[in-house]
Design goal:
Blueprint (H helix, E strand, L loop, with lengths): L2 H8 L3 H9 L6 E2 L5 E2 L2 H15 L4 H12 L4 H43 L4
Antiparallel strand pairs: 1-2
Length: 121
């Protein structure tokens, strides 16, 4: 399918699809006229990429590990999956720490506002 159809099916903009290609995340086929040709496996990969990006993972990490995660099973696949899961867990832990700091800051601001709104004696 052409890029417009791939965009509709995957929910990714044509610009995003071109970006994923530029970043080496996908490799669409080419028609005789040079137009990109997206097969279902490429669309499935785009859906995976979008999900990972929406989760906050970086293009760098996705580019590094996604090829090994989606290739046919082999000796290195389990190690790649373990490395990927370790990276995701590490990202999640950093995110949780940031959320904790923000929650503490929010609580401090709430306390300040409660105090500031009290009528003067």
């Amino acid at each position: 399918m052409r890029i417009g159809d791939a965009s509709r099916v995957s929910g990714a903009s044509a610009r995003s699809l071109r970006h994923y290609e530029d970043e080496g995340l996908i490799v669409p086929g080419r028609c005789g006229n040079g137009f990109r040709d997206y097969c279902q496996s490429t669309i499935d990969r785009v859906l995976t990429i979008r999900s990972l990006l929406e989760s906050g993972l970086s293009v760098r990490l996705i580019r590094k590990l996604l090829p090994r995660l989606t290739d046919e099973p082999d000796v290195g696949t389990d190690a790649a999956r373990a490395e990927f899961l370790h990276e995701v867990q590490s990202y999640r832990d950093r995110l949780a720490a940031r959320i904790s700091v923000l929650t503490d800051q929010q609580a401090a601001l709430d306390a300040y506002l409660r105090q500031a709104r009290r009528p003067a004696p």
